[in-house]
What does this fold into?
Amino acid sequence: MSHPRSYRHVPTLVVLATLILWAAAPPGPAHAQPDEPVDLNAVYLIKREGLDRSQIMDVVSWLTDVHGPRLTGSPNLQRAADYASGLFRDWGLSNVAQEVWGEFGPGWTNDRFYAHALEPQPYPLIGYPKAWTPGTNGAVTAEAVRVTIETDADFERYRGQLAGKFVLTATVPDAPALFEAPGRRYTDDELAGLAQQPAPVGRRNRRGRRGDPEFPERRMAFYLEEGVAALIEPGPNPSTGGGETGAVWVQSGGSRNPDDPPVAPQIVLLTEHYGRIARTLDKDIPVTLELQVQNTFHTDSLDAFNLIAEIPGTDKADEVVMLGAHFDSWHTGTGATDNAAGSAVMMEAMRLLKATGLPMRRTVRIALWTGEENGLLGSRAYVAAHFGNVRTMELTPQHDRLSGYFNVDNGTGLIRGVYLQGNEAIAPVFDAWVGPLATLGMTTLSIRNTGGTDHLAFDAIGLPGFQFIQDPVEYRTRTHHTNLDLFERAQPADLMKNAVIVASFVYHAATREALLPRKPLPQPAPTEAGGR
It folds into this structure.
């Protein structure tokens, strides 16, 4: 468009007419859809309630400080679900239920962990046991040794030498300096890049050498036969493969299936502490450690559940808009950014919609999933029970009545946009909804797919399922699955804005005339060998 000064010699009425027509024209983005209704009064009410009277950090504190960590099947998760169920009822939500989705196996908790180096000099050790592993049957004082067992031939090198020892099983990983801050915002250029169609990538050759898949089981059997006191390893960094400096990154080392072979006690130490022990041993200086680990397997109930609650709709109440997040966490830290943050955002979004009293045509349903950390188990089971079989594409009547599902599971960072999962038809709709939320920082629609979260269960069966784009605030670099995932790492301003954004999206999905546009249905998934 020319600079306004270029109009100075044109008659005034012509200028005014031109400017009026220009102002009425569709805005710049190709996605723009001026006939998609946007209720600015509703957005105002949601913003006022969510930014002036937020309850989100109180919810985060209850989920983390009081009830965290929340492994699926653990008493902590049950208590957290009872707390959330009570809140939902206090807020006036309907059909609050803990919906059983299937057998998960025994729960597990770490009740006590103590680790200390005694010789050649005393110092405390920071670490955690791996989930679903046994304890040490009291305090154990023993010598530490380093071993390298990579093939069956290595068994004979150590046979008869490991009884009662603390066995260091891995090389010392790199612990690179953090030259860039672990907490950051997406830049405008990065968001612009996310908005672009990604370059096609050829299929990877997956026929590479996989090794012997049964070797780890034979190695564990050897350790048990030898009678090791415990296996010790450093915490890996999931994003770089190096050492997670300053944090302990821990997941599972045992099995929830009681019929699987037993395992030895397994401890993950802070990389820096593991490295100190290993380097001392490399100098032929003996190291003596003292450990006490007490873990409990909970077998009272082997079933797992998702937490469900609703706000009933009006004239289209049989149609549903869903929002959700995973409620479970790992046992290091208290599961603050992964994923009490996402759960609290979705809970607060439901509170905002109820507190504002905004009428919604469709029923709005929240689902807080369990078993996510074990393979998206809760959301996949829910989709199978309610919407159809992803392998055969045999669909239920409910499949036709779900408008869409919105998910938050990328930490505490501010929502900057939404991944469209390749759904071209949804872009004009979301483009209109983003308009009044740009002042909160949400501007970007990315046609790309993103993985690893519960929206995938919906997308896999042809339902609109979306994960929001979030700033990578310390996620995967500091808090993700580590002992630093605590309340203090949850950022109040970001979470308050996130709840407002989610509530606005859900409100518009629940009040528009038609269901959200869908991609074509996927083809039935091929049956793998073994019938799985």
Remarks:
- The domain at 40-105+301-526 is CATH 3.40.630.10 (Aminopeptidase).
